[in-house]
Design brief:
alpha+beta; six-stranded mixed barrel; two-stranded antiparallel ribbon; 16 helices; 14 strands; about 50% helix; about 15% strand
């Protein structure tokens, strides 16, 4: 009681010193409160963003692994060109059954897939932009570098036909990502029956206007490899696609979003199956490659994961799953969502690091300042120490009095600093975050200018649904799906607002920091008090 009473009396008597120390501690507390709030807000925002991010991935060939394996000529050398070609020939795309088997895993929430093929139009119908396309959209690809075994393929690609339009089949609404995301929307008619093989299709509004065709109209499509093989499709609905008008240059009309025809996966499967049954095959006498007139179709599949932890777990388990299915372990899973998430939280990570660094600087500088003031203070009050010890007050009790003074000042000043910090944290946090975003965007812009692309930032190309996984007829799902490409086309959406609130944990941390600093500073007083000799102090004073 003696210690507390004397400590309070000294604080009241020495108002100037008390206010000075209190202001210093309040400034430290305010800066610490802001740093703690900003750090916690950045961390919380990143965790919230991750929880809200649906992670999707596509399985494709890891070409770095495929070409990075040593060749047979030397274990220390890269594979020869012939070996690379042979490896590519054996790098088959995965079938739907194989993809479904790989998706049968506790970490996979859903498998979304579509099936695509390219066909020509019959009669008076024309593809949008046909007048700008080359007249011959059929090219014979006999390069042995191209992978073989594609569904509907020819023991290779053989005669790879690029038609006027792309037909994409869906088995469920979730796989129609453009409609789910709002990029596409039905404006007339209705969605076809996803479970029926009735050849009903959705057509783009541009295609409908260009060909003066409406709901209920008939469209005849032709196998580019066999002109006598035709199929009639009935328009069930018309949709708009916001990516159609801003889409980049393409190699064929089939890649134009305006020329995308959507139907049920059952309908497309029936068309492909019928084409395979009616197909004729031939063998090239020079190359020995087998070709067929059957339609080519390619599955583009997207694996959906509940969170990043599930994605990471599946990625680690994929080699074992591939081996269990008798597939090559050269396949890997990639996710544009993970890359986009990591890019979107980069300003938050920088903000968290900045806040942590600021906190340590404030604490370090604050501790040094308070220790210096404590040393100066105890030297000024040396006579007081001599009097107290001379009248019988033990040195530990005198030292405790100074510690108590420091703790009381720290607690009161920390409360003041807490109040200021609570008021200032939100605006400071968001201003710092805005600076981080501006800095990152400026760096990206400078990089783009260095490559001769002024004002352009990677990913600013218009997004959209890319049938078949690559935008090419039939797709190349085995070498990366459409969702990956679509994700890379979307610009990074940075989190530009955080909620820097002060929670009970921060309050406890702040009070702990205040007490810790006061104790550290008062330890200098304790050391001096324990070393003082009262008689010598009084003698020097006299």
């Amino acid at each position: 009681m003696f210690v507390l009473r004397n400590a309070l009396l000294n604080l009241v008597r020495s108002k100037g010193r008390t206010i000075l120390i209190g202001l210093i501690v309040a400034v430290i507390a305010t800066a610490s409160c802001i740093a703690l709030s900003v750090r916690d807000a950045a961390k919380s925002a990143a965790e919230t963003q991750l929880a809200a991010t649906e992670i999707t991935g596509t399985i494709g060939i890891d070409r770095s692994q495929l070409f990075g394996q040593p060749g047979t000529d030397s274990s220390a050398e890269m594979p020869s060109q012939d070996e690379m070609r042979e490896r590519l020939q054996h790098a088959q795309s995965l079938t739907l059954d194989q993809l479904q088997a790989l998706a049968d895993n506790e970490n996979v929430s859903q498998l979304r897939y579509s099936d695509s093929t390219s066909m020509d139009l019959s009669g008076d119908l024309e593809a949008v932009g046909a007048e700008e396309a080359t007249s011959d959209q059929t090219s014979e690809i006999t390069d042995p570098q191209m992978p073989g075994g594609m569904p509907g393929g020819m023991g290779g690609f053989g005669l790879f036909a690029s038609g006027d339009v792309t037909l994409t089949g869906y088995a469920d609404e979730d796989s129609m990502t453009a409609f789910v995301a709002g990029t596409s929307a039905i404006t007339d008619g209705e969605l076809f029956d996803l479970s029926a093989a009735d050849n009903q299709v959705l057509i783009n509004s541009e295609f409908a206007t260009y060909n003066s065709i409406g709901v209920g109209g008939a469209i005849t499509v032709v196998n580019p490899n066999a002109t006598e093989e035709t199929y009639e499709l009935i328009v069930s609905g018309i949709y708009t696609n916001s990516a159609a008008e801003t889409s980049p240059m393409r190699f064929s009309t089939a890649q134009d979003p305006a020329n995308q025809l959507y139907l049920s996966q059952a309908s497309l499967s029936a068309i492909v199956a019928n084409s395979e049954a009616a197909a004729t095959t031939s063998t090239d006498e020079t190359t020995g490659m087998e070709t067929t007139t059957a339609l080519m179709s390619q599955v583009s599949a997207t694996f959906v994961f509940a969170n990043k932890a599930a994605y990471d777990a599946y990625s680690a388990a994929l080699p074992a799953l591939l081996e269990a299915q008798g597939l090559s372990t050269d396949y890997t899973i990639t996710s544009a969502d993970v890359a986009n998430y990591e890019s979107s939280i980069l300003p938050l990570q920088n903000l968290e690091k900045f806040a942590t660094t600021l906190l340590w600087i404030v604490l370090g500088v604050g501790a040094l300042v308070l220790v210096g003031i404590a040393i100066f203070n105890i030297r000024e009050r040396k006579y007081e120490v001599g009097v107290l010890t001379a009248i019988g007050v033990r040195k530990p009790k005198v030292a405790m009095q100074y510690v108590t003074e420091s703790v009381v000042i720290a607690l009161l000043a920390s409360i003041v600093g807490l109040g200021v910090g609570v008021a200032a944290s939100p605006s400071v946090a968001n201003n710092l975050l805005a600076d981080q975003i501006a800095s990152i965007e400026a760096e990206q812009s400078n990089t783009e200018q260095n490559f001769g692309r002024p004002g352009g930032i990677p990913g600013d190309m218009p997004g959209g649904e890319i049938p078949g996984g690559s935008g090419m007829p039939g797709g190349f799902g085995g070498f990366g799906g459409g969702d990956v490409i679509e994700g890379l086309q979307n610009s990074t959406n940075y989190i530009d607002q955080v909620s820097a609130t002060v929670n009970p944990q921060i309050i406890v941390q702040l009070l702990g920091i205040g007490i810790a600093l006061s104790v550290i500073a008062s330890m200098a007083s304790v050391i001096f008090v324990m070393r003082f000799e009262p008689l010598r102090i009084l003698a020097d004073r006299s």
